[in-house]
């Protein structure tokens, strides 16, 4: 549902940009480092929107890849700790515990 909402907002935004671009149909002078050119304002607006969308998408993709790597690393650390715990539980005790000895245990806090 959340993705559909984003898609709807993106479609509305694209429609607003397209309407704005079609209304402004005059030519504009674009200054490059090596010269100038006259382009229709429609192409300048739409091109800027496309380049902006692609750059935001690229940065978002890079962030997603970084987060996936972090999740993979954290899963690996978690699995190593779980296997270490299982090994510790599976090891037989070197000396039997008598009832007079106190067994150390972790204190668990209760959420109220």
From TrEMBL:
<feature type="compositionally biased region" description="Basic and acidic residues">
    <location>
        <begin position="79"/>
        <end position="90"/>
    </location>
</feature>
<feature type="transmembrane region" description="Helical">
    <location>
        <begin position="37"/>
        <end position="62"/>
    </location>
</feature>
<dbReference type="GO" id="GO:0005886">
    <property type="term" value="C:plasma membrane"/>
</dbReference>
<keyword id="KW-0812">Transmembrane</keyword>
<feature type="region of interest" description="Disordered">
    <location>
        <begin position="79"/>
        <end position="112"/>
    </location>
</feature>
<dbReference type="InterPro" id="IPR010445">
    <property type="entry name" value="LapA_dom"/>
</dbReference>
<dbReference type="Pfam" id="PF06305">
    <property type="entry name" value="LapA_dom"/>
</dbReference>
<keyword id="KW-1133">Transmembrane helix</keyword>
<protein>
    <submittedName>
        <fullName>Uncharacterized protein</fullName>
    </submittedName>
</protein>
<keyword id="KW-0472">Membrane</keyword>
<feature type="compositionally biased region" description="Basic and acidic residues">
    <location>
        <begin position="102"/>
        <end position="112"/>
    </location>
</feature>
């Amino acid at each position: 549902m959340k993705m559909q909402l984003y898609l709807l907002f993106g479609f509305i935004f694209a429609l607003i940009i397209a309407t704005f671009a079609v209304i402004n149909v005059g030519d504009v002078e674009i200054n490059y480092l090596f010269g100038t050119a006259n382009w229709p304002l429609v192409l300048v607006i739409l091109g800027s929107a496309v380049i902006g969308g692609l750059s935001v998408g690229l940065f978002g993709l890079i962030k997603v890849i970084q987060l996936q790597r972090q999740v993979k690393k954290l899963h690996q650390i978690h699995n190593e700790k779980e296997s270490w715990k299982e090994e510790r539980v599976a090891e037989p005790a070197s000396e039997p515990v008598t009832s007079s000895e106190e067994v150390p245990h972790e204190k668990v806090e209760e959420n109220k």
